[in-house]
User: What shape does this take?
Amino acid sequence: MRSYLSPSLILFLILCFPSCESVTDSPVVHNMEEFEKRPSTVKPGVIQRKSTTKEAVFAMAIEAHGSYDPVSKLSSGAYGRLSNLEVVSSNEDYVGLIITTKKKGI
Assistant: This one.
């Protein structure tokens, strides 16, 4: 899935239906090769069922930020720019998100 916000921001949307107990149970996730290529430090999460809704959306943003120079042993840009991710609308055709950043420019 593409992000049109910034080349440094990778945005994954995972739809989870009422029968899903975890992120990896979602039928969308099983078809995503990128999900299987995730770093070993990222563990599958658990999504609670919402008894009042038929379908729920789980939205997650993974922001690539910061760099480390092993020679000087210094890091730069170690803090992310995202402050909030909110699902404002969803239907069969699309999911609408509001992404709030700490700084302007993305």
